[in-house]
Amino acid sequence: MAPINANDINDAKAFVPAKKALPEVDTEGSNGNGITSKGYSYETLLEIANFLLSRVSDKPHIGIICGSGMGSLAETISDAVKISYEDIPNFPVSTVEGHHGQLVFGKICGVPVVAMQGRFHYFEGYPLWKCCLPVRVMKLIGIKTLIVTNAAGGLNPNYKVGDIMIVKDHINMMGFSGNNPLHGPNDERFGPRFPPMSKAYNLEYRKIAKEIAKELNIDDIVREGVYTCLGGPNFETVAELNMLKMVGVDSVGMSTVHEVITARHCDLKVFALSLITNECVTSYDIIGEANHEEVLDVGRMRQDVLRQFVSRLVDRITQLDANNP
Ligand SMILES: O=P(O)(O)O[C@H]1O[C@H](CO)[C@@H](O)[C@H]1O
Ligand SMILES: Nc1nc2[nH]cnc2c(=O)[nH]1
């Protein structure tokens, strides 16, 4: 028989290399640069923070992480200063379609903010601490509040594609096996060894978000529920989704949970939302399947409403926090 070659496999589809090469992850220990398999030292993160602060005129108060296909949230930022991840020393790079790969500094409703137009996921090959490194950097440059957005599958049968789910809680599935962004030595300058997570998603912010939904006349598409993150990159099986449904999960994604854990560890206040980009396939009779193109399309479809929603949130959170310092 003739030997097979690479082109015979997978319908001879051409190999498409990743958009950008991943930097090597040091798994052996410190490389002499403050970077170890368990994270960057406080000093290394401080260097990154100071590099960023040297490029901007205002310290941001609020950080925003834009989910898949939701990068246009950063387009509401005025006086924008954009810094590509590739130009930031020791910063990871975005490798996923729909994640631009830059920080955008500027103002929303007059409030200094920084937005991550592109996040890092575990499935890209980054350990969880590295996925969350920007959260610590944002803390060091002065943010007090983190707004996290994600694209997610809707598991709650009442949810429809295009709904916005305010996250009231999460289930850290990856954490059940010990994979946690805080794994490893704890630096008390960030936070305690054993941080609580029972009030991870700020109750006042959630109330404000529901008021904003009414003001914008979108309360019929705004929900509140429980998010979970799986490692990805594959979407879930029917059996997996039915198990998650049984334990009370409303939306499923591949991000956010570890970012929120890292944020709460260093005492940031958190608001998070899921844009429901697809209905989870919980029966073998359903014909459709989840796909990333649909996820990005729904992000585009909802970009105007999300921009208004997040802008108002920034404004109202700032007023709330000014009255309760
Ligand atoms: O969580 P974000 O980055 O919004 O993206 C979600 O959408 C992608 C799958 O389409 C995955 O990366 C998943 O995590
Ligand atoms: N894990 C997961 N992530 C998503 N991101 C967008 N949709 C989905 C989904 O259905 N499952």
TrEMBL record:
<dbReference type="GO" id="GO:0009116">
    <property type="term" value="P:nucleoside metabolic process"/>
</dbReference>
<dbReference type="InterPro" id="IPR000845">
    <property type="entry name" value="Nucleoside_phosphorylase_d"/>
</dbReference>
<keyword id="KW-0808">Transferase</keyword>
<comment type="similarity">
    <text>Belongs to the PNP/MTAP phosphorylase family.</text>
</comment>
<dbReference type="InterPro" id="IPR035994">
    <property type="entry name" value="Nucleoside_phosphorylase_sf"/>
</dbReference>
<feature type="binding site">
    <location>
        <begin position="119"/>
        <end position="121"/>
    </location>
    <ligand>
        <name>phosphate</name>
    </ligand>
</feature>
<comment type="pathway">
    <text>Purine metabolism; purine nucleoside salvage.</text>
</comment>
<dbReference type="Pfam" id="PF01048">
    <property type="entry name" value="PNP_UDP_1"/>
</dbReference>
<dbReference type="GO" id="GO:0005737">
    <property type="term" value="C:cytoplasm"/>
</dbReference>
<dbReference type="GO" id="GO:0004731">
    <property type="term" value="F:purine-nucleoside phosphorylase activity"/>
</dbReference>
<dbReference type="InterPro" id="IPR011268">
    <property type="entry name" value="Purine_phosphorylase"/>
</dbReference>
<keyword id="KW-0328">Glycosyltransferase</keyword>
<comment type="function">
    <text>The purine nucleoside phosphorylases catalyze the phosphorolytic breakdown of the N-glycosidic bond in the beta-(deoxy)ribonucleoside molecules, with the formation of the corresponding free purine bases and pentose-1-phosphate.</text>
</comment>
<feature type="binding site">
    <location>
        <position position="255"/>
    </location>
    <ligand>
        <name>phosphate</name>
    </ligand>
</feature>
<feature type="binding site">
    <location>
        <position position="151"/>
    </location>
    <ligand>
        <name>phosphate</name>
    </ligand>
</feature>
<dbReference type="InterPro" id="IPR011270">
    <property type="entry name" value="Pur_Nuc_Pase_Ino/Guo-sp"/>
</dbReference>
<feature type="binding site">
    <location>
        <position position="99"/>
    </location>
    <ligand>
        <name>phosphate</name>
    </ligand>
</feature>
<feature type="binding site">
    <location>
        <position position="68"/>
    </location>
    <ligand>
        <name>phosphate</name>
    </ligand>
</feature>
<feature type="domain" description="Nucleoside phosphorylase">
    <location>
        <begin position="62"/>
        <end position="314"/>
    </location>
</feature>
<protein>
    <recommendedName>
        <fullName>Purine nucleoside phosphorylase</fullName>
        <ecNumber>2.4.2.1</ecNumber>
    </recommendedName>
</protein>
<feature type="binding site">
    <location>
        <position position="278"/>
    </location>
    <ligand>
        <name>a purine D-ribonucleoside</name>
    </ligand>
</feature>
<feature type="binding site">
    <location>
        <position position="236"/>
    </location>
    <ligand>
        <name>a purine D-ribonucleoside</name>
    </ligand>
</feature>
